[in-house]
């Protein structure tokens, strides 16, 4: 696993290093040299005696003991080389950039297995194979360009894909984003994205480590590990943003439940990111913009001041912030008037604060000072300052630089004149700053950051759920498939989910007696077939004995029917509650209003089990139909607390019953006396 | 108005030109000289005899006759200078860059008025004041930088704001976007955005004019003109994209109708852009990306092939395209296999077509050829090609260049290595190409383009609407306010909108007789007060004489009640139809499902009256609740054609009744026998 030798090796051997910098082995040596690597650097190349000024050994047998080896040789040659390095040269860290392994052929996969075996034997670490390598403050162990600027406060970047990592770095460079480390994990034979994150979490040192993590993930192999360590790092003060590519995979699984039909393979990823507190992005531009936001001072609230010398971009930015549910509060009253009196005629201070095109660097300083010290309803400032090319902007950007150092409130610089004021922007960036060149991209990304919840509590809400009973019920189930109504009732009861009273029989007298006892109107449903309603197996609003008898006679003739179930006809708002199981992720729990809300409008929200109350209330409140739950149009709402209780308890039940693959409680009816599950279907696979 | 002298002046005088290129007057002269202006160039400066190598006249009195004057002098001096130039020097085109006019003070506004009067007297044109100027293929009449590259096929760009125009150009430069003209209209004293567009439309020459228009608009002063000429240009083969800044103005007007509460000031803009076929953008980055898309070959369909040498960006792009309802069709079968056999092992052809990192320029050419000639289900190609820095990309980009020239299908180049392969990307752009550096930004923008409708038909659907009767009813209305039920009925009848049968009286016997005639159940509503339902003035589902009598007695005691109206109780899906009047834009017509759909879920769509059938069906079908209209969950749908008829006819009625400021038909009930308006409120202002 990750060790000191991988992060800060005292010596490195490049196996396959060469003089040709247009080949990976040559470029690797060049990058290490250009990066002023301070340890001992060796090269192994059978055909050369001198490689870029370094002595070249003809065989790995010949080199001294070395901490790290970077291999850029054909895949077939790697097995033996690793063996020698691991067993004879005490190498404790391997980076294998060579391709031709498991990503291409089965034989390649076997080579990987052998290599991993050797490396694990000696307790060494492995990055790759099939990657671009690893670079950080200590060394640039990659065969590619560009090499970004490194700084302890920069971004720790871990990527599933080397090529994509490069293109993400390209997008970061123009913003001035600096890095602390860049990890390309390739085939992740030993170390994957989750493992690097685990290392960063377990060894986190708040004084020295970067607090910004940026991830590009193609496949989440270990969701639990990602969730655990991402949440943990965020609780320790880190910020994490990530792309999970492949979010709209069209291939939907065949699903027999409502929930199954709604859930996509992306729901699990979305739910996991939200639970962990990871800011999810969908493009390189977004990802590097969010990471850039992370480099600035902590944002304490959603109230933004926009300071500008041009109206248009400020208005577009204000639009983007409002769309993202951030505030651009009005600034008025005596303090605003005082600020206005210090600016040129024509300036506006209502927010945006427009110091107008001829506004001076002093005006900029004044406007920032007022936002910092005088306006209480401002949490952060966005400063838009470009140039029509008449004068240089060094003075203005020096003001911005100083204020960004001094002010407690974060300042987001938007410097749009990247060509006309190119040198000034570059000089500003060289001082360690970020430039956001498009204000709307910034506004949208900031909204994404501020609308991402904190990591959810990891406590499981056990109250009200009889876990041993849940296990007993599940364990004694004989086979895969749908639970019987009786088993379903028992399971829901174990999680304290209230069920509508019901009685099942094939005897008409018993059914009539029950109906009279619970009082008409009642509902009758066939027992047996799965798709009851499709075959006329459900009769609502039965108001008298005659009506019930008529339905009894009709239903008992339907194919496969073994009996009739009678329930009271509940009146109230229909709700929906369901879950699907996603391999390795666990259960995604869905909630929403019933009927057309779930089936036509797809108005559901979801989260990863087990759910905390915070997560659950936020799920309920993010429904478009939430006003109906709260009560609207003269209608009383429903008991939101009880709905949340049921969702939380169901999620706890599921946490201990991975055998449940799909389930619906549909409808769950909110009556005057509380919520009752009226119908439920549960499918298990053992 | 716009004339030849404004667009291609044979001679220009810069009044206030100077030697100081850090001042507007000096920079203006420099830009004209740097732009190699071919006509006669004069400078007027009282203090100089030589300005940047040109003879300087001490007074405008001294210059020869000149076609265009660009003024960069204090606002107060402009009036007299314009007078001399217009009346004595035969100047026919003015660009006034000076500020200090109507945008600052009332006195400034009066100066503007005087100047406009003089200019109109001699039939000259005026750009400004308070602008950066005008630049095109013939001359660079601006005091600012950057100056983009000009080309007859470039973009015609018209901007309300000079500063914003510059920042938009900055964003265009990095993509390689070229311009045909840049207009900054400033205070738009004579010529505004709409007027320039009008000129371009009336004088459109398909052989010589650019077909790409890009607009930045802060205020739409003449919506009809914008709509008319934008649609007309698009019908002539142009493409238009625009930003209208200020889309989320929080200040919602007080509204007394449902529609009023839903409509925002942005609805009108959105409806107008859609009707015109303008692609709406919200950021500089989006705007210049859309304009860049317009420079490529015509996109004939929504089926995209992604050709790449790196998996990650291709997957992110595929996600973005799917989200935007474009297709990335599977490529398989013998042709796909054949293509695969021509690429390196490990390549994938399923779409994305991944020629892998080591893929050669020849592989790129092959993949493009297959998409162009062999795959029938591909309409366009997106090519992602960057570099890890080992080799130069000139060969690959030469392939791309040639294929973009040769292929009938459009090719979108995404060249992400803007730093590492910077020189190669620049050389590619120099050949006249665009580079989209972020694939997701491109994918999102392309979806925006392909999802924008064509301009709507301008025919007014008169069938079924008795326009003279509409006018008679409106004209005889005595005062502003809500129409009485009787007037409302007459008006809706004139548009052939079916109304539920009803009878109003204060005589209980008459009401009972009517109820018996139409058959119970019935509805009773008070006549008089506006907010009936708030005061218990509506009783539904009255099933017998006794019940009706009871309600009669109760209702007649409510304050302000003058009578009771009885209607049959209709059963069916509730629909909603409404409209608001937006100053200068006309009526925005809203449709949707009734009840919670409109009040809680705000699920409405809208368009600008008068509506065509295409627009109306597209409105109905874009409702989230549309499946209910179509029929879902075993429920029959509603008569969509009749709903469309009613919407179209209502929009025609409104077109001839601008006095109607707000109206709701709520509900409109879809019964077995057709749609009937059950309740309607109409407010007029004369």
Question: What can you tell me about this protein's structure?
Answer:
Chains A, B: Pfam families: ATP-grasp_5 (PF13549), CoA_binding_2 (PF13380), Succ_CoA_lig (PF13607). Chains A, B: This is Acetate--CoA ligase family protein. Chains A, B: Residues 489-525 form the ATP-grasp domain. Chains A, B: Keywords: ATP-binding, Ligase, Nucleotide-binding. Chains A, B: GO terms for molecular function: ligase activity. The structure is a homodimer of 686-residue chains. The first copy, chain A, is 37% helix and 21% strand. Chain A is flat and about 100 Å long. The longest helix of chain A is centred in the first third of the chain and has 16 residues, at 106-121. Chain A is built from 24 helices and 29 strands. In chain A, the strands form 5 sheets. In chain A, strands 3-4-2-1-5-6-7 form a 7-stranded mixed beta sheet, with helices on both faces. In chain A, helix 3 runs parallel beside helix 4 (106-121), helix 17 runs antiparallel to helix 18 (485-494) and helix 19 (508-518) crosses helix 20. With 686 residues, chain A is an alpha/beta fold. Chain A has 5 domains: 4-136, Rossmann fold (3-Layer(aba) Sandwich); 148-294, Succinyl-CoA synthetase domains (Rossmann fold, 3-Layer(aba) Sandwich); 305-432, Succinyl-CoA synthetase domains (Rossmann fold); 501-569, Dna Ligase, domain 1, CATH 3.30.1490.20; 573-684, D-amino Acid Aminotransferase, Chain A, domain 1 (2-Layer Sandwich). Chains A and B meet through helix 5, helix 10, helix 11 and helix 16 of A and helix 5, helix 10, helix 11 and helix 16 of B.
């Amino acid at each position: 696993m990750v060790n000191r030798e991988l992060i800060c090796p005292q010596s490195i051997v490049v196996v396959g290093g060469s003089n040709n910098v247009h080949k990976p082995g040559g470029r690797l040596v060049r990058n290490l040299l250009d990066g002023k690597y301070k340890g001992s650097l060796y090269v192994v190349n059978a055909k050369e005696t001198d490689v870029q000024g370094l002595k070249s050994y003809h065989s790995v047998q010949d080199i001294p003991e070395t901490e790290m080896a970077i291999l850029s040789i054909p895949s077939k040659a790697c097995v033996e080389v690793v063996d020698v390095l691991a067993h004879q040269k005490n190498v404790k860290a391997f980076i294998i950039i060579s391709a031709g392994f498991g990503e291409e052929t089965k034989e390649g996969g076997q080579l990987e297995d052998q290599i991993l075996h050797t490396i694990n034997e000696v307790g060494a670490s492995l990055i790759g194979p099939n990657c671009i390598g690893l670079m950080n403050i200590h060394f640039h162990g990659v065969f590619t360009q560009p090499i970004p600027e490194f700084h302890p406060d920069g971004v720790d970047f871990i990527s599933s894909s080397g090529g994509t990592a490069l293109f993400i770095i390209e997008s970061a460079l123009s913003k001035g984003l600096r890095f602390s480390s860049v990890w390309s994990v390739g085939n992740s034979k030993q170390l994957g994205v989750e493992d690097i994150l685990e290392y960063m979490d377990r060894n986190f040192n708040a004084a020295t480590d970067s607090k910004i993590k940026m991830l590009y993930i193609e496949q989440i192999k270990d969701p639990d590990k990602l969730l655990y360590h991402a949440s943990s790092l965020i609780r320790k003060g880190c910020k994490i943003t990530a792309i999970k590519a492949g979010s709209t995979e069209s291939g939907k699984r065949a699903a027999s439940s409502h929930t199954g039909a709604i859930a996509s393979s992306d729901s699990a990823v979305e739910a996991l990111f939200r639970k962990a507190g990871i800011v999810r992005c969908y493009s390189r531009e977004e990802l590097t913009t969010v990471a850039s936001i992370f480099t600035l001072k902590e944002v304490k609230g959603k109230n933004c001041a926009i300071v500008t010398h041009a109206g248009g971009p400020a208005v577009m930015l204000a639009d983007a912030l409002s769309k993202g549910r951030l505030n651009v509060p009005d600034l008025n009253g005596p303090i605003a008037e005082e600020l206005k009196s210090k600016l040129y005629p024509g300036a506006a201070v209502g927010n945006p604060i427009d110091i107008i095109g001829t506004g001076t660097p002093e005006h900029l300083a004044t406007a920032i000072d007022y936002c910092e010290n005088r306006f209480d309803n401002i949490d952060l400032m966005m400063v838009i300052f470009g140039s029509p090319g008449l004068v240089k902007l060094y003075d203005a950007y020096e003001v911005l630089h100083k204020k960004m150092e001094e002010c407690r409130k974060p300042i987001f610089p938007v410097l749009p004149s990247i060509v006309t004021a190119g040198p000034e922007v570059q000089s500003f960036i060289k001082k360690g700053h970020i430039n956001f060149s498009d204000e709307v991209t910034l506004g949208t990304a900031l909204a994404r950051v501020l609308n991402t919840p904190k990591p959810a509590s990891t406590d499981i809400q056990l109250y009200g759920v009889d876990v041993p009973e849940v296990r007993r019920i599940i364990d004694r189930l004989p086979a895969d498939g749908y639970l019987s109504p009786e088993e379903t009732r028992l399971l829901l009861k174990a999680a304290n989910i209230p069920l509508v009273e019901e009685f099942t029989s094939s005897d008409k007298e018993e059914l009539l007696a029950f109906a009279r006892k619970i009082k008409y109107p009642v509902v009758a449903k066939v027992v047996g077939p799965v798709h009851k309603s499709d075959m006329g197996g459900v009769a609502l609003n039965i108001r008298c004995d005659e009506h019930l008898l008529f339905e009894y006679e009709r239903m008992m003739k339907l194919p496969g029917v073994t009996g009739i179930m009678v329930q009271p006809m509940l009146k109230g708002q229909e709700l929906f509650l369901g879950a699907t199981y996603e391999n390795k992720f666990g259960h995604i729990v869905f909630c929403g209003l019933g009927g057309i809300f779930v089936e036509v409008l797809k108005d559901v929200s979801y989260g990863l089990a087990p759910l905390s109350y915070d997560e659950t209330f936020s799920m309920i409140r993010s429904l478009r139909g939430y006003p109906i739950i709260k009560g609207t149009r003269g209608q009383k709402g429903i008991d939101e607390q009880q709905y949340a209780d049921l969702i939380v308890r169901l999620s706890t039940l599921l946490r201990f019953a991975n055998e449940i693959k799909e389930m619906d409680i549909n409808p769950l009816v909110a009556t005057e006396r509380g919520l009752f599950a009226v119908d439920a279907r549960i499918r298990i696979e053992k």
